[in-house]
């Protein structure tokens, strides 16, 4: 009888042990990351193509290429942003086009007129080659999704634009404004739309949304008193302009002079 009681006691302990074992073995384990390994897998043209994928995307690729390669206009000479100290033909053209096309939206919507345009030298990403100009050309020159923005600036901030251009020593695209760089590296004879700069006047300056937010250290744009987003991509500004002209006129006028 005593042996039977001992046996039952051991049996109970064994059952409890098995129960606890299964409970803890089935409970979720906490894992922690200790090491990450990887290797670079370059994507090259040498990689094998999957016929099914290629056949699927081909119609879309052909359609896009057809649109991109459609001829819009003709350029009589190659325009390159590297050809010019204080201004370039391609920069002047882009700024002129932004004023022209921007006013088609700004005038009827706000009953105001764009006075000048300032873009950035680095924003021009390709040349405008001699010959046929296509939609692809516009994408190459302006690959970014920047919108055209108009800012209301006081005359003092317009004066800062000239100071900025002199300091940066780059051919920033400029339209509607001219000035002379004096021997002491200050701006003089600042003219807007052919009239002397009025420090008390509000001027409407076209630019892109990146620069409007003080990009490229254009901090004067942060002092604007009015702001209008035209919801008009700069790339589309170029495309629409190319569509309406047969031969692109090359700007030759001098906008910045040195003493």
From TrEMBL:
<dbReference type="GO" id="GO:0016787">
    <property type="term" value="F:hydrolase activity"/>
</dbReference>
<dbReference type="GO" id="GO:0009166">
    <property type="term" value="P:nucleotide catabolic process"/>
</dbReference>
<dbReference type="InterPro" id="IPR036907">
    <property type="entry name" value="5'-Nucleotdase_C_sf"/>
</dbReference>
<dbReference type="GO" id="GO:0030288">
    <property type="term" value="C:outer membrane-bounded periplasmic space"/>
</dbReference>
<feature type="domain" description="5'-Nucleotidase C-terminal">
    <location>
        <begin position="84"/>
        <end position="221"/>
    </location>
</feature>
<dbReference type="Pfam" id="PF02872">
    <property type="entry name" value="5_nucleotid_C"/>
</dbReference>
<protein>
    <submittedName>
        <fullName>5'-nucleotidase, C-terminal domain</fullName>
    </submittedName>
</protein>
<dbReference type="InterPro" id="IPR006179">
    <property type="entry name" value="5_nucleotidase/apyrase"/>
</dbReference>
<dbReference type="InterPro" id="IPR008334">
    <property type="entry name" value="5'-Nucleotdase_C"/>
</dbReference>
């Amino acid at each position: 009888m005593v042996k039977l009681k001992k046996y039952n006691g051991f049996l109970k302990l064994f059952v409890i042990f098995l129960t606890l074992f299964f409970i803890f073995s089935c409970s979720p384990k906490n894992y922690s990351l200790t090491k990450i390994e990887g290797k670079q897998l370059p994507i090259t043209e040498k990689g094998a193509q999957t016929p099914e994928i290629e056949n699927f995307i081909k119609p879309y690729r052909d359609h896009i290429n057809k649109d991109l390669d459609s001829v819009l206009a003709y350029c009589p000479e190659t325009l390159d942003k590297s050809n010019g100290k204080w201004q370039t033909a391609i920069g002047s053209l882009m700024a002129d086009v932004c004023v022209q096309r921007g006013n088609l939206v700004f005038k009827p919507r706000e009953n105001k007129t764009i006075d000048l345009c300032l873009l950035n030298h680095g924003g021009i990403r390709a040349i405008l080659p001699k010959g046929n100009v296509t939609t692809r050309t516009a994408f190459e020159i302006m690959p970014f999704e920047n919108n055209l923005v108009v800012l209301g600036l006081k005359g003092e901030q317009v004066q800062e634009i000239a100071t900025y251009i002199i300091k940066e020593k780059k051919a920033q695209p400029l339209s509607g404004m001219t000035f002379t760089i004096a021997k002491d590296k200050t701006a003089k004879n600042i003219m807007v739309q052919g009239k002397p700069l009025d420090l008390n006047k509000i001027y409407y300056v076209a630019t892109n949304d990146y620069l409007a937010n003080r990009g490229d250290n254009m901090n004067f744009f942060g002092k604007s008193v009015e702001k209008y987003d035209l919801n008009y991509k700069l790339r589309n500004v170029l495309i629409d302009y190319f569509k309406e002209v047969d031969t692109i006129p090359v700007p030759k006028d001098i906008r910045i002079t040195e003493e």
